[in-house]
């Protein structure tokens, strides 16, 4: 039961972080907002680590660093695939693959037993696709490159959870600190590359959205705090329960985003997404039993 609650908490808080990050990115630059959220997340996890007992080890740091690198690559591929489109196909495809990778690893290691467990996992995977569906008018068949990038994105994002799960149980949040160090470093390097490219083209190091982001710091701060809460919920969910259960629930993170968008921005939730939310609740109830 607690594992399911932590998995759902991780999904909802990840979704909230994505919503707030997207809200800030509308008024500023995506890469600036992403870097800002990552830095807030790093500071937040580092502060949490001061109060959480942990044993530092090579495995804790190496698995954490590897998961951070995998996550950064996965997010980069995700943005690239969504830029190619169509989002209505590539977004749920990425979410499905990001769930199926750790679920497959968990089942291969002997997790789960009984028909209800496998029925719940199947319902949850269908829910991941439906909840992650992005209604889009005039969607066209995805190009091969978009599909390849979406598959790569889902694989690396799923691998992130697998690597965190492999970290030692007594390592506290050290793997998360290492994760954020790796991902923040890669994001800062990407930001530097963008600045250098702009300097070469326009002889100016300024970035679009640089002045706007100063006034958006409360939103960026809140997104980073939600990201910290999500990561802590997920790592303890993994330590208390099965990788397959936690990973498939975490992949429902778009639920948090669409629910907040509905409440705050009055955006309409599509019927197919409501169906996904219903299946997610049913799957969660079965997994809790």
Explained architecture:
The chain contains 12 helices and no strands. With 289 residues, it is mainly alpha-helical. The mean pLDDT is 86. The protein has one domain (2-288).
Overview features:
single chain, mainly alpha, globular, 289 residues
Number of strands: 0
Number of domains: 1
Strand content: under 5%
Question: Class by helix and strand content?
Answer: mainly alpha
SSE order, one letter for each helix or strand: HHHHHHHHHHHH
Low-confidence stretches: none
Number of helices: 12
Radius of gyration: 19 Å
* Largest sheet entry: none
Quote the distance from N terminus to C terminus: 7 Å
Mean pLDDT: 86
Instruction: Work out the helicity level.
Output: over 70%
What is the overall shape?
Answer: globular
Write the layout of secondary structure elements.
Blueprint: H1 2-27, H2 30-49, H3 58-84, H4 87-108, H5 115-131, H6 144-166, H7 174-202, H8 210-214, H9 217-240, H10 243-250, H11 254-264, H12 271-288
Helix pairs in contact: 1-2, 1-9, 1-10, 1-11, 2-7, 2-9, 3-4, 3-6, 3-7, 4-5, 4-6, 4-10, 5-10, 5-12
